[in-house]
Amino acid sequence: MLEFFGDRENILRICYHPFTIDIEVKDPAKIDLESLRHEGHQVALEDHWIQIIAKDNQALYQELDVAFHQRRKWTPKFIGQAILDTFSSVLMPLIPMLMAAAMFKTVLSVLGPQMLNILPEKDNLYTLFTFVGDAGFYFFPVVVGYTAAKKFHATPVLGMFMGAVLIHPTLIEIVEKGYSMTVYGIPMILQNYSGTILPALLSVWVLSYIERFFKKILPSSVEMVFAPFLTMVVMLPIALCLLGPLGQILGNGLCTIMLRLGNAGGVIAFLSIIALGALWQFIVIGGLHWLFISSIYMILAGTGHENIITCAIGASSFAVGGMCLGALLRLKNAEEKSLCVGYIIAQLIGAVTEPGVYGIGFRYKKPLIGLMAGGAVGAGYGAVVHLTAYNFLPVASFLTFLNYMGGSTFNFINGIAACLIGFMAAAVVTYIVGVE
Fold it and tell me: Could you identify which of 9, 69, 159, 191 might form a hypothetical disulfide with 204, taking C-beta atoms 3.0 to 4.6 angstroms apart as the criterion?
């Protein structure tokens, strides 16, 4: 089918969405639309993008994606696009689950003790909604294992198995109690992977190559039994001793660097806070945010206040809502607009930013510019007015305002202002850059 798109270099990238396959081309005039339609697909051409609704979107995408990447030159630009497209393909199918989990958290925020106090914390319904809402994020490695396996053409249930290994209760108990553990004699760096994305994504990426290797060399009569088993045997030390801890190692280094830069004061501290505001959502995606959050609690316990990390977190969180608002004003499809409204509510009330980041940011790419700009501008304002947190609620909703109580009234007002500035800046920039 690649021949229907003109010469083979005419294709720039292929993006998978739940209902469509979007293909960007250099020259739309070279596209043979009639031949594509004769294949039984619904095809629409808009500017440099071709939208295909196939009989089996997933199967067609996998075939096109393999053929496309086999012939591409791995330039820095192409690698950057491939990384973003991978995140989009892996995370977009998770949006329904994230929205459902976010709504449970939203209901709890409104009816719980924090607002209306209709549901006390000991109420059975409160307990039920709490663990249901948490489940959508706790089991991230399992569902990411599934979607990553789809993306990398591995066996989906094997990807889920890999994710399940990362959050098995025994492993979590070993981590929490600090027991020493080895895999085939290789020391394992202890880390809790619940709610993380990158460890499972990277592990399944490597798993896809190992599984294909064993399927290639094993006789068909024993392949079904031994290919999955041998794949997991090889993957255990790679996942538990290398790829999983890699995020922790990078995170520890990043956390130390940011704290040192922030404590340096002056221009260095100002730029560090801006950088953290711009990059915070990517830190969350990498599962590294808990390293920063643990540092916040340590600083608060020692000094009673913190003015480096918390200054950026609120602005960045509200920038997600602002990015979704900017996209809402630019999008024309009614269904996509309604999703944007849901993403905004999920952030402002439900304290959940993932639906907006994945559903708008990684899906359309350009809104990520608005997200980073809003986080940077809001955090920059906080740095200028020396915004200080006297306690810390690790939430992304309006309840984050409470973090800035305990000092002067102006500090509290500046905390609200920093978040709203981040929201509005992200909305404006996203509206300007568009969502094409």
Answer: 159
* Secondary structure of residue 386 in the 3-state scheme: coil
Say which residue the tokens 């020396």 belong to: 386
CB 321 within 8 A of CB 347: yes
CB atoms near residue 324 (< 10 Å) = 34
Q: Is the pTM of this model over 0.90?
A: no
Closest CA to 311 of 347, 271, 267, 344: 271
Residue 86: count of CB within 10 angstroms of its CB? 16
In order along its 436 residues, the chain shows pLDDT tens digits of: 667 777 667 777 777 665 678 787 778 888 777 777 777 777 877 777 787 887 776 677 777 776 666 656 666 766 766 776 777 678 778 777 876 776 787 678 778 886 678 888 888 999 998 888 888 878 888 999 999 998 888 889 999 999 999 999 999 999 888 888 999 999 998 888 887 777 888 899 999 999 989 988 888 888 888 999 999 999 999 999 998 887 556 555 655 665 676 667 778 888 888 998 999 988 877 656 766 776 776 677 667 788 888 889 999 999 999 999 999 999 988 888 988 998 998 888 877 787 888 888 888 889 999 999 999 999 999 999 989 888 777 778 888 888 888 778 899 899 999 999 999 999 999 999 988 6
Paired tokens of 213: 């290797």
The structure tokens 């209709």 sit at 118
